[in-house]
Recover the amino acids of this structure.
């Protein structure tokens, strides 16, 4: 009987996702596909199915698999390297670098980021454009954020660093785990406590080397 008060309400369409929500949904689907099937299973069709959308919808957001991996790398780096607030910027150099670079929850799962690095190495000869695009959202972004703070430290008299670009690259290598071990041995257990200890040691040695307070 139509109009009966006891009739269940008709469910409407789910609310449409905005661009950022859809992007995150797709990248989460990428992670899920990788966790289940490895990089070999990461295809546009598999990611679209995992995200509950058509391939056409997926391609409307990401042009190809390279763009998908590029976006994942960009999101991972945004989560792994914090943005400093105006209040943070007023802190001493050691505290700024700690807030910027200290290992976070994003560092607890590095299997896919390292798999992307392996993909870049393997496919770079045939797809140098892909390697270049993905790489630009990796180490260069970290080094640029560090260099900003080293330049700020020079301006404030907190340190005297002749080449902040080279120093930023050096600090990046000192505080981050080397990818080489995981690249040659993907099954190697990931030890977050060891990563944190390396960060503290690397930062302390660096700060003493540039004459800054630790």
């Amino acid at each position: 009987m139509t109009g009966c008060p006891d009739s269940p309400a008709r469910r409407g369409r789910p609310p449409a996702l905005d661009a950022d929500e859809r992007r995150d949904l797709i990248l989460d689907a990428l992670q899920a596909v990788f966790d289940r099937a490895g990089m070999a299973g990461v295809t546009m069709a598999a990611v679209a199915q995992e995200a509950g959308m058509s391939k056409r919808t997926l391609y409307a957001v990401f042009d190809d698999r390279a763009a998908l991996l590029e976006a994942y790398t960009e999101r991972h780096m945004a989560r792994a390297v914090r943005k400093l607030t105006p209040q943070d910027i007023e802190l001493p150099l050691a505290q700024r670098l700690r807030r910027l670079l200290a290992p976070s929850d994003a560092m607890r799962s590095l299997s896919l980021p390292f798999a992307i690095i392996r993909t870049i190495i393997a496919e770079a000869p045939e797809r140098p454009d892909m390697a270049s695009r993905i790489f630009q959202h990796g180490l260069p972004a970290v080094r640029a954020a560090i260099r900003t703070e080293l330049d700020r430290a020079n301006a404030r008299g907190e340190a005297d660093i002749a080449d902040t670009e080279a120093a930023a690259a050096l600090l990046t290598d000192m505080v981050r785990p080397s990818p080489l071990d995981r690249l040659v041995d993907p099954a190697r257990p990931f030890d977050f406590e060891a990563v944190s200890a390396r960060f503290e040691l690397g930062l302390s040695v660096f700060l003493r080397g540039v004459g800054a307070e630790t």
